[in-house]
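User: quick one - fold this with heme C bound?
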Amino acid sequence: MSPASLRFFWFLGLVWVMGCNSKTPEDPKNLNRIKDLKTKQYAIAGRELYIQHCSNCHQKDGAGLGLLIPPLKNADYMLENPARSARIIRYGLKGEIVVNGQTYNQPMPGNPTLKSIEIAQLMTYIFTNWGGEETLYTVDEINQFLAP
Ligand code: HEC
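Assistant: Sure. Structure tokens for the protein plus heme C:
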């Protein structure tokens, strides 16, 4: 391998390491502190779903990504209207929105295969973890949120 390409791979490795460090994952111990058992179960299952379906974009710590992806952590837009947030998770979102005073305008794809129970678990996780208080969403509530 030529010295130039060695330098290049070294550089790639550095970028990779820095990228990993920038995503400080939320502290899972916080979930263990949840008092209500059902809320805790939903939040733990929701965390897995979040890592699988959402963290690529919104990041593990919910901080979003620069001016492209809005945060979920302490996000006024997400918290002020839970029904709208449930519909965004199922159907996606297009067009300009303002989150915590910052404008975003990139399409988010929907998740048509997520079941109501999975959206309930996801919503319980993101609202409890990043909304400041324990918040349980039931399947019935999610079905009401998603009803046309
Ligand atoms: C491909 C990247 C991507 C993925 C994956 C993704 N989102 Fe988003 N999300 C976005 C973008 C971009 C917006 C802003 C949409 C706009 O500007 O109209 C957004 C907006 C939102 C909002 C409303 C704005 C806010 O920050 O309060 C919520 C809530 C949300 N996403 C939750 C989720 C959840 C939960 C998941 C996983 C089920 C998810 N998103 C998966 C890119 C993504």
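One thing worth noting: The pocket of heme C is lined by residues 53-54, 56-58, 69-72, 75, 77-78, 85, 88-89, 93-95, 97, 99, 104-106, 108-109, 111, 122, 126 (CB under 6 Å).
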